[in-house]
Design brief:
With 189 residues, the protein is α+β, with helices and mostly antiparallel strands. It has one domain (3-168). It contains 4 helices and 7 strands; from the N terminus they run ααβββαββββα. It has helices at 3-20, 36-51, 98-111, 170-175; strands spanning 59-62, 68-70, 82-91, 115-116, 129-133, 140-149, 154-162. Strands 1, 2, 3, 4, 5, 6 and 7 form a 7-stranded antiparallel beta sheet that branches. Strand 6 and strand 7 form a beta hairpin. Helix 2 packs across helix 3 (98-111). The N and C termini lie far apart (48 Å).
């Protein structure tokens, strides 16, 4: 079965889109500050804005990737910032409905005033991709289709949301690599 490759390809595309548009939450002078819980809650809200009311109604199947990770825009840093990334595969609908689900996600996000990363998807393409951003909080989101059966023109749809980058709380930092030890009496790192 070729579904795992499709899901992997969709996750790679979503990750690529996240790198291209990672936000700046938590940076000095930034208007948006987040923690992991707020970022996760907002990402889930954006997913549901796209999915609630879809027809046919899909089942959300979360990909097994860790939702919190190093900020992909900080490739040369020491990992001071992190971001939340949630990806869901839309299941329980005919494979031929994938394009329709992507269009519905796009319509729901446009209705909320979110902006396109570039232009709208090429709807003549059998497997269009939509990349958008929220304003003013700068979450990136993608609705992507992949090929299940090229001969029949059926596909799979997935939705992904990536938060802006933010400085982790102590609880988030404890799940990753340990923070460097500070000498007694020194301010926390």
């Amino acid at each position: 079965m070729r579904v795992p490759r499709v899901v992997s390809a969709a996750v790679v595309l979503i990750t690529f889109a996240a790198v291209a548009g990672c936000g700046e939450a938590g940076q000095p002078g930034s208007k948006v500050t987040l923690d992991e819980q707020e970022a996760t809650r907002r990402a889930e809200e954006i997913i549901h804005q796209a999915v609630d009311g879809m027809s046919p109604e899909p089942i959300l199947e979360r990909t097994p990737l860790a939702p919190i990770g190093a900020c992909l825009a900080d490739e040369h840093s020491a990992g001071e910032r992190v971001q939340v990334q949630l990806t869901y595969r839309l299941t329980g609908v005919p494979g031929g409905a994938a394009k329709q689900l992507v269009r519905q996600a796009r319509d729901a996000w446009v209705k909320r005033g979110y902006r396109f990363e570039s232009s709208d998807a090429d709807w003549n393409d059998p497997y269009p991709t939509v990349s958008m951003r929220t304003e003013p909080d700068d979450f990136g989101m993608d609705a992507i289709t992949g090929v299940l059966d090229k001969e029949r023109g059926t596909g799979v749809a997935s939705l992904g949301v990536t938060s802006p980058c933010f400085r982790p709380s102590d609880a988030t930092a404890l799940r990753g690599e340990p923070a460097p030890l500070a000498p007694p009496g020194a301010p926390p790192v």
